[in-house]
Amino acid sequence: MRIGQISAIAAGGILLGVSFGCVSQHQYAELEDKVALQKKMLEDSIKVQREMLEVNSMQQKKIVELCTEMRAGFGATSDSIKKLTEKLKEKPESDQDKLVAAAVLLAKRGPNNSRYNAINALGYIGGPEAETALLKMLDIEPNYRSNVFRALMQMNSSKLRELVIKTMKNPTGRDFNTISSCFDRNNNRLFTRKDIPLLLEYLNRIPLSGNYSHYRSGVIGIILSLDTPKGIELVCQEVLLNPSRNNNIFYQLNNRSIMVSIADWKKVLEALGPICSANLNAYQAICQAIRNNGDIRMTDIVLPWADYAAKNSSFKRSYLDMLINFKDPKAAPVIVKMQDGIADDYMVRRMKQCPGIVEKNGKLVLVDKAEMEKLMAQREKTITRLNALDKKRASLLKKTK
To answer: With b meaning 16 or more CB within 10 Å and e meaning fewer, what string describes 157-189?
Structure first.
């Protein structure tokens, strides 16, 4: 299978994952736009991959010329480059072999920027030869270790888990950055629930001071995806332990693969405290996470923030975006009240689609009393159904433990 086929299959998997994962039961109205966007991204990705695979005779000649120039620059005694130059002239050889050979050469001998790009390219190309080359670089290229780990993760290397766990057990100061890319909350391929003790041990080794909050939040994000209640406990602890650097941690809650319960949200918000200028950035992140959660039961929790949102233009947009996404008639009065000053056509169009709101004479108003009562009755049925689903989910979780 060629690189273009592999990339197309991978991109197709991403398209399906994003398309289905991004749409909660309250977000079907936006499905078509998101699918169109993902289709465009997929087409662009395939186009790039096809361009990469057009390694014809002209491109082969350029590679040979590049190697010849580099040999001249490093001296005529550079046997490895000389041999590679001759090897590139040999046939038959696959396009992928040529790409790997050229990328390895640049990763070892090129200037800094070229080396970074070449290592990343090896991760996208994949294959045994690229993997072997990257593994060798870990020992001889200490300044590029984080790039190598990222490339190994990109190619889904079978060697990566062993390397990451070894590093986690005895990390140095630089290692926190080196393996940070391996703690991807949206793409966890390395860890299982059995690894939670190791993850907790590693978390305790990451300093609270300095610029380490990003690394700590990445580990907590993985734990959230494996054991959400434990992850919520850690989020609350992080807020209390490191109040001045807790913004990153809230972005970990913006993950569609985890189920944050209403009770869990209440714990997080209690730990954070009432909204104010000091924690405004944290509340911005929380609005985004709650927005994507799409649970109308959150309306009662967030409605008290309306007064602050009305006085703060930057928070107002995030707050309205969250309320609109609930599609909850109970939020309609607040949305109507906050419509002044919203010039964004897309936002206005979404506001018009909210249950309980209609447009009259160019202004948004509430529906009549009878219609609102019907909508609120339907809302109560939805909440009853969601509560029943929560109880069923909790019962299943107890059985699996």
So the answer is: beebeebbeebbeebeeebbebbbbbbbbeebe
User: Would you tell me how many other CB atoms lie within 10 Å of the CB of residue 356?
Assistant: 22
CA distance 26 to 44: 29
- Name residues whose C-beta falls within 8 Å of residue 68's C-beta, 6 or more positions apart in sequence: 85
Q: Tokens 């939020």 belong to which residue?
A: 331
User: What DSSP assignment string belongs to 295-329?
Assistant: -GGGHHHHGGGHHHHHH-HHHHHHHHHHHHHHT-G
Say how far apart CA 353 and CA 365 lie, in whole Å.
12
* Residue 104 pLDDT > 80: no
Q: What letter does residue 368 receive in the DSSP assignment?
A: P
Q: What's the whole-model pTM score? A: 0.69
Give me 347's structure tokens.
Answer: 């936002």
Locate tokens 């490093």: which residue? 74
Do the beta carbons of residue 330 and residue 376 sit within 8 Å? Answer: yes
The token duo for 20 is 């289905």
